[in-house]
Amino acid sequence: MEQEFTVLENKMVGRNLYKIRKIREKKAADVAEHIGITEAAYTKYERGESKITIDLIQKVAEYLKVDPINLITASTGHFIEIGSNSPAAGINNYNGVDEKLMALMTKMIENQMAMNEKIMRLLEKLNQ
């Protein structure tokens, strides 16, 4: 059951990786090079075929200049740019990221993921 949950989340996040990369007009090969993996490995993340980590989300967000929260939320219609002063239609601009806020958001994401894993393990035990 845990595997099904992971795949579901990976598909949504992967779709967001793809959409925002396309909006930014970046090639998958360029993103892959930035994060230090092959293009084939990166596109597996976009398709939701590989487990997506916080580290990957942070690296991709940095390269695409978006708030990492936008990569893990369901709606990518509006997103926050990191360090951009140029307004773009339909995009909320954000000038820089407060390091303490980023650390807090990362910790919150990690805690949520850990809690989800615990819930899935408990559900598996109940279904046995």
Automatic annotation (TrEMBL):
SMART domains: HTH_XRE
Stretches assigned to the HTH cro/C1-type domain: 20-71
SUPFAM superfamilies noted in UniProt: lambda repressor-like DNA-binding domains
Organism lineage: Bacteria, Pseudomonadati, Bacteroidota, Chitinophagia, Chitinophagales
CDD domains membership: HTH_XRE
Matches recorded under Pfam families: HTH_3
Natural source organism: Pseudobacter ginsenosidimutans
InterPro entries: Cro/C1-type_HTH (IPR001387), Lambda_DNA-bd_dom_sf (IPR010982)
Protein name: Helix-turn-helix protein
Signal peptide region: none
A single GO molecular function term of this UniProt record: DNA binding
